[in-house]
Design goal:
This protein is an all-alpha fold. About 6% of the residues have low confidence. It starts with a helix and ends with a helix. Helices cover 72% and strands 2% of the residues.
Amino acid sequence: MAQFRKNRISRPKVFKQVRLRSSENESSRLLDIPPPEPLKEFYPKPRNKAIYLLPNAFTTAALFCGFFAIVQAMNQRWEVAAIAIFCSMVLDGMDGRVARMTRTQSAFGEQYDSLADMVSFGVAPALVAYEWTLKGLGKWGWLAAFIYCAGAALRLARFNIMTGEADKRFFQGLPSPAAAAIIAGFVWLAEDNKLPVANLAIPWTMFFLTIYAGITMVSNVRFYSGKTLDIRYHVPFGMMVLLILLFVLVSSDPPLTLFGLFVLYALSGYVTWFWGILPFSKKVDRAKTAMTPKAPSVSNEKLDVVNK
């Protein structure tokens, strides 16, 4: 019995010695193997920093067009100033897409784009509108221009802090490029058709458009963003027909077509909001929800049979 206890006590010691020896052999064997190289697929090579100049070059070009619009407004070349704002809109829409396509998004690019938008779509349209016709309204003219400029600044600041949180399908408030297009489009339309700017109807119309654009930019009304549209994949045939018609309309009368399209877009948010608060629209939504087929529910008895 004592011998049995002795063997029983000594066994763990032998096991520990064998365990230690085996671990020492494994460690010595592992030490002979050179350490593995880091997986390159998990650590991609950093991109060339020069490629980050590509989206920032578009942002700089948009900023130049906004500054050029201010200079042309000082020289009383109103039509050229309005066209420069529209060119800034096109370049501003390209820099973000270029950054996403080339995977060169950066915090610097976001802040630079926001500052360029403030100049091109905040300061430039306000100064163009004031120098064109709001100056004749006295203090009401520069107050309207300031409301628009402050609305653009608040709109851009709110957009920066809500990046990644808001629904990508919609903008909260009228986008600053669309607001600038309303101001520049009206200036371009009036100059192209030789409307009498000295008439009181033109200054007060610009006053109303400026106030409307400035307040709508800081409102909570949602406007369709179009970011969910992916141009890399196939589109229906009707979309190509609409695109051709759009090109025909813009080429036939650019100021009238662009101004009309952006006015409709600026009104679309309020139309959608008004439609949402109607009781009839709520009934339609409930009907659609009721007509939606539900997934078949599995009873507890069937689950018990499956588990068994």
